[in-house]
Design brief:
The chain folds into two domains: 238 residues, Zn peptidases (Aminopeptidase, 3-Layer(aba) Sandwich); 114 residues, Alpha-Beta Plaits (2-Layer Sandwich), CATH 3.30.70.360. 32% of the residues lie in helices and 27% in strands. It is built from eight helices and 16 strands. The strands form four sheets. Strands 1-2-4-3-5-16-6-15 form an eight-stranded mixed β-sheet, with helices on both faces. Strands 10-12-8-13 form a four-stranded antiparallel β-sheet, with helices on one face. Helix 4 packs antiparallel against helix 5. The longest helix is centred in the C-terminal third of the chain and has 22 residues. It binds zinc ion (ZN) (2 copies). One zinc ion (ZN) binds next to loops.
């Protein structure tokens, strides 16, 4: 009910610190600005496994009619990161009660600023991955039924870049196009041409997306526009395709400049890299998930081209990101997506996610003798 935006998760961090403290887990604060790390170690020098939950909210006014609606004006947990915090705290509670049997170290990583500002990078800069052998991340997933787990080796979330381009033409009278450089026509040409990158330059087996989401320009119906600004996003599951899209966009822009004798300025914003699961860690999650939800309910996820900054951890260490089905019961499939103002999730999913986190650690670090 008290969601906080990226790098402003002060109350949230405090709540987490207090909870970890009460469980006798050692706590490090201000790791990546507002991040918190709990460490549960044993006397054995076994492996160190990190479990990660992100904790930031989104700038959306909550519209759902639920008793636990956001009390912070214009901010809500529309992605379910509050659920991630709950699952990781749940796992910390269960695992702290089994600390005598632990043969290694568990790091509970509560990360700020997943939604756009890349809090993962700040935690890495502050050394959160030092000594870590593997890292596992979780996401509630309203695209799947509650009681299912989505996991796969290789790419599971996409690279997400952004772009803004400014077409500088030459205005004039709508009835006398000669001598003008029509920025609206050039924009139309560019938007169409960009789609040929997806349909002709990339392997159709490897999904990519280019979306122009915003177009701004012009003055009146009878005036040729001298300037149009386009903004959009590109998505890819591999770094090769992420690079290819950018370089082909540049080629098309250069060609279009020559074709229309105009200037086009591109501001390309590199976003998160693709989230690529280590095959053996993904296999480990799959085996643990099957123990919790059964063989048929764990497997290939409902994939999206969304971005996720857990990718930065996976560039440094082997690990896996998995999806916990959380679609609210009695709602149409996909009718309550992440990032919508009436977002909600099925709370029993929290038990599933916590159990998988615990199982991952029990399997790797807990002796049963
Ligand atoms: Zn999100
Ligand atoms: Zn999210």
């Amino acid at each position: 009910m008290y969601p906080e935006l990226a790098f402003e998760e002060h109350k949230t961090s405090k709540l987490i610190q207090d909870r970890l403290d009460s469980l006798g887990i050692s706590v490090q604060t201000a790791v990546g600005k507002t991040g918190v790390v709990g460490t549960l170690s044993s006397k054995d020098n076994g492996k160190t496994i990190a479990l990660r939950a992100d904790m930031d909210a989104l700038p959306i006014q909550e519209t759902g009619k639920i008793p636990y609606k956001s009390k912070n004006e214009g901010i809500m947990h529309a992605c379910g990161h509050d659920g991630h915090v709950a699952m990781l705290l749940g796992a910390a509670e269960v695992l702290s009660s089994k600390r005598d049997k632990l043969t290694g170290t568990v790091k509970f990583v509560f990360q700020p600023a997943e939604e756009g500002l890349g809090g993962a990078r700040f935690m890495i800069e502050d050394g959160v991955l030092e000594g870590v052998d593997q890292i596992y991340g979780i996401h509630l997933w309203n695209y799947q039924e509650c009681g299912t787990i989505g996991i796969k080796p290789g790419p599971i979330m996409a690279a997400a870049d952004g772009f803004k381009l400014t077409i500088i033409g030459k205005g004039g009278h709508g009835a006398a196009p000669q001598g003008t450089k029509d920025a609206v026509l050039i924009a139309a040409q560019l938007i169409q041409s960009f789609q040929t990158i997806v349909s002709r330059d990339t392997n159709p087996i490897e999904s990519t997306v280019i979306s122009v989401g915003k177009i701004n320009g012009g003055y009146n119906f009878n005036i040729i526009a001298d300037k149009v600004v386009l903004e959009g996003t590109t998505r890819a599951y591999t770094e090769q395709n992420q690079k290819l899209i950018k370089s082909r966009m540049n080629d098309i822009i250069e060609g279009t400049e020559r074709m229309f004798n105009c200037k086009i300025e591109l501001d390309y914003m590199a976003g998160y890299p693709p989230t690529i699961n280590d095959p053996s860690c993904a296999e480990h999650v799959l085996l643990c998930a099957k123990k919790i939800v059964g063989d048929s309910a764990a497997g290939h996820p409902y994939l999206s081209m969304g971005g996720e900054d857990f990718s930065y951890f996976l560039k440094e260490k082997p690990g896996a990101f998995f999806l916990v089905g959380s679609a609210p019961k009695n709602s149409e499939p996909l009718s309550i997506p992440h990032h919508c103002s009436h977002f909600d999730f099925e709370e029993t999913a929290l038990l599933v996610g916590t159990s998988v986190f615990v199982e991952i650690i029990e399997d790797l670090l807990i002796t049963n003798n």
